[in-house]
Amino acid sequence: MEVAVIKTIGELIQDTRRASNITLTQLSELSGIPKGTISRIENDEVKRPQFSTVHPLAKALNIPLETLIDYYVEIERRSDSLLHILHTTIQHKSNNELIQKVATKYLESCNEDSYHLTEKLYQNIGSIEDNTIKLLLYNLIIEHSRSHGMMPYIAKGMYQRYLIERNDFSKLKETYYSGKYILHYADFLPQQERIELYYKLGIHSLNLRLYSESIDHSKKVLEYGESFYKVNALGVLRDAHFALGEYEESELYSLQYKQFDYPYIRENAILMEAFINSKKGNIEQSINQLLLFLKSCSNDSVISATNQLLRLYLQQNNLEGAKNVLESSTINPSILNTSNPLILSRYADYLQIKGEYYLAVGDYEACINYMVEGASYYSKVNARVKEKLCRIIKTAFTHGDIL
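The structure assignment produced for this chain is given below.
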């Protein structure tokens, strides 16, 4: 016996209604769609019924949304209707394959220019909460734009993808290099996004301890004149030069940075002054500055100040001073800003330094525990060299190699 193949939306609605023993009147009451409209749809008098009209009928008849959308992807040509169907598909958390199918069909609509279609889809992605779906659609825009030679949307799609992917701290190095690749298309980005890209790459490379690259990216930000990003780029330049041991350059950028009157800038400037004093050999002055600073600084600065103070005390073999710092420490991992890899990295440093303190006082069990915890936090930000160092120390103690 041959099974009849349903070819139209009308046949789908009619056959399902009859199989369910539901009358036109009952379906009208269940769906809120007029009986006459349903009849015209079932009899194919409406060749391309609006999705917004058929969807309530399908819900009332328990027709899976995926089945209905599959039908519409085959017959619908109007871009506005396909965009509406795409929204519905996303709202109902349909599978990614179906979402991609609808979005692809939308971009292929022949009633609008490819640029306009791509721009509308690009603008709509911003309101989507699910990052997996956002990445799927940005990737689709990139692929579609490559095949149509639309350079601005290749650039914009890659930039938005980078902003999402860079939040996976376990892949900081991989996402950094994918972000750097966008620089080949930077001229196609709007100026504001171009500035943001250079700044974010500057921060990203600073987190990875790629200090020379961080300097190069941050200097690009300065080329665009006054902006919020310029202020923060000066701070990045100061920190990157400091990390490279280029203290004169660091001081120069610190002076420029201090000219901007924001509370967090004043705090950062005081902290950096203490750091530079320690590098100049003014150890006691630096220690006093840090002790005073810790009495009033914000949570974001506590870790950096504590780490530096502990380092200085351990260098002096002042174990009593280090003990006092640890006992009075207000560092609380439960309130760490886990959305900032720099904070996580500094907390990992804190745990490692704490382990070094317990090594110095002969408490090997505590040393091992803090080294293991430090390695765990380093792994969160892909700091493999430091993670490995912590694990080597832990292994050495476990096997008795150091004892």
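Interim note for the steering committee: The chain has a mean pLDDT of 90. Residues 341-360 form the longest helix (20 residues).
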